Amino acid sequence: MKYFKTLFLPVVFLLGIHSIICGQITQQYRDVKISEMIKEISSANLESNVRKMVSFSTRHTFSTRTEKEKGIGTACNWIKSEFEKYLKDSEGRLEVKLDSIYLEPDTRRITRKVLLTNVVATLKGTDPGDKRIFIVGGHLDSRNSEANDSVGTAPGANDDASGVSAVLELARVMSKRNFPATIIFVAFSGEEQGLNGSTFLAKKAKEQNWNVVAMLNNDMIGNTFSNETLLKDNMQVRVFSEAIPSSETDAQKNIRQSTNAENDSPSRQLARYIKEIGELYVDQLEVKLIYRNDRVLRGGDHTPFNRQGFTAVRFCEMNENYNYQHQNVREENGIKYGDLPENIDFEYTRKIVSVNASVLSNLALAPGAPQNVGVVISGLTNSTTLKWNIPQGKIPKGYFILMRETYKPLWERIFFTDKTEITLPYSKDNYFFAVQSVDEEGHKSLPVWPVPVR
């Protein structure tokens, strides 16, 4: 049964436009292959990975690189060895490496010259003509109450062995499948010393002109119980996304201001996409969109990618527990402190990893996003005309036009056309629009905000 014959009701033909327009979404269907892949994601594997990383005592950026059972050197080598277990199932498409650079002392937390190492596994796309890259990461380093305590026990179970465990599990299940686009799985170092590992990779991606479509950062995705407020929730996850792009140029600023696109940055479009796709594929989990780049005055490994002009967001648990975060392991006044595995709900982590898998798979299988998307502004009219160019690579089955009222945070209506231009009987003064490509199976690209054209 073809996707477009079953997805939307009703279907209306507008005279003079020769495009199919579909009303409010009534049904959506999961890709069976993606659903089967998600079933392979294991909470037991996630727990095993976290406990192994905790066993290294500390993974501080300045910790030992020579001891066999302790320190960041051993942690990097172990993560690399785990990635290498998936080489056979990838049929030669997975490449694993330690990507290192020396950091010079700065005026903050880099007090001496130190070797920084990211562990990177690249799953090459099956289509040589598809240059798109998707990145998913978490940071492998840990810390204590004192930011530069490099010898004390710093388990870092949730912050961020949970994120690295997620990356390992994603690589395990996804390397068995074929995706036309490339997916890069990364365990970053140096996050706690200033986002150094992600800054290193983001700058490399920019300098080498990588076509990074989306970056997903997983940082603290295991705790469900908050201190102080005593909230407990394993059915919600936060996704943070920037509003105004960090790398915005003056020309982009002018377009944003003239079209009122303050809430429609590429990263904000990715966040909405995550909510739609994640909630479709993963039961008993609500994706809560947090309309800010990160928590107040804080950041994560998605931030350097934003700064380099890439689309990037952060996954983070709904409730943080500051008794467990950046704390020496101890007990005071009957309260236990420290980031230990027993504080993690691994079933909750599994659901968040499943959202990552569903989003990465749908994006990597989808056609590229439509190019040069524009809204026609010549003449005064109460209708809206949108036009765009066919993306490079895989030819879409068609395009979805998304629409919402200006005060609404999420897309409300969807229209379909197999053309590259459409006129809708809705005023661009009263609604926001975006356009995305879609294939025969319903895999959709990220939505693209239209810029004014004449």
Can you describe this structure?
The protein is an alpha/beta fold and 454 residues long. The protein folds into 2 domains: 3-30 and 370-453, Sandwich (Immunoglobulin-like), CATH 2.60.40; 33-365, Aminopeptidase, CATH 3.40.630. It has 10 helices and 19 strands. It has helices at 3-6, 32-39, 43-54, 72-84, 157-174, 196-207, 250-259, 266-281, 303-307, 346-365, and strands at 11-13, 20-22, 94-103, 114-123, 132-139, 182-188, 211-218, 236-241, 286-290, 312-317, 330-332, 335-337, 371-376, 384-389, 398-405, 413-417, 421-424, 431-438, 451-453. The strands form 5 sheets. Strands 3-4-6-5-7-10-8-9 form an 8-stranded mixed β-sheet, with helices on both faces. Strands 17-14-13-19 form a 4-stranded mixed β-sheet, with no helix packed on it. Strands 16-15-18 form a 3-stranded antiparallel β-sheet, with no helix packed on it. Helix 2 (32-39) runs antiparallel to helix 10 (346-365), helix 3 (43-54) packs across helix 10 and helix 5 crosses helix 10 (346-365). It is globular, with a radius of gyration of 23 Å. Mean pLDDT is 93; it is low at 1-26.
Short description:
The protein is an alpha/beta fold. Helices cover 26% and strands 25% of the residues. A hairpin with a 7-residue loop joins strand 13 and strand 14 (384-389).
